[in-house]
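Folds vary. Our protein:
___
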Amino acid sequence: MYARALWLAPVAALLGGCATNPAEDPVQIKLNDLDTRLGKVERVVSNQSLVDLSRRLDTLEAQQRELHGSTELLQNGGEALSKQQRALYTDLNKRITALEAGAGAGAGAGAAAGAAPLAAGHAGSEEGGAPAGGSGTDQAVYARAFEQLKGGEYRTAITQFQGFMDRFPQSSLLDNAQYWIGEAYYVTRDYARAAEAFRAVGERWPTSRKAPDALLKLGYTQVEQKHLTDARATLAQVAQRYPGTDAARLAGERLQKLTPEGR
């Protein structure tokens, strides 16, 4: 508006002396018309700027809401993942602790009878296992792999258990090694390999004491893979094949939590 006034002022000054009646002066009439039109244009431009600004603000607000939603999604996903990893670690830690307690009791009984103690973590064959020997025996190699597992060095444990199985193909601890390979894969969320390892326990050592747990964990793994139909069938097999066992009880509890749509 200020710029318009500056532009019109000189023209009005030049014509002021010539027009006796501004209302009838053609030039003044045209100037007034131009002034009116210019005012309309300015209002339109001003309104359009406000519209553009409003649109930009709406866009920014939408982007902010989207970013906020993505942040919340990432936070919730991270919390869920951390919770699941803690649950997996807790489950494995409980199993290892129970095995250590059993091995310790077996070692005490063996020492009282003048026998050598069993290797730590020797599950499934503790009572019938061979006495621990020197560093080159299968017991010692197995124990070293198991120590890696207890320490959370899962990849190293897998490699050492696999090496143990290759080196001692006749060992009575093969079923245990195969099972713990599956547990290590499970904890590291490599569910495809975990399923193969757990399935191998039942196929190669169907009478092993680790067979019920292996079948149970196979069902858990299938749940994680979203193979829910297979998971239900596997968990049902645990209860059918090994009634009265802890594995059967846990399988029944897990089955109750499954719904037709998911977990």
In short: The domain at 86-257 is CATH 1.25.40.10 (Serine Threonine Protein Phosphatase 5, Tetratricopeptide repeat). DSSP finds nine helices and no strands in the chain. The chain has a mean pLDDT of 73. Residues 26-112 form the longest helix (87 residues).
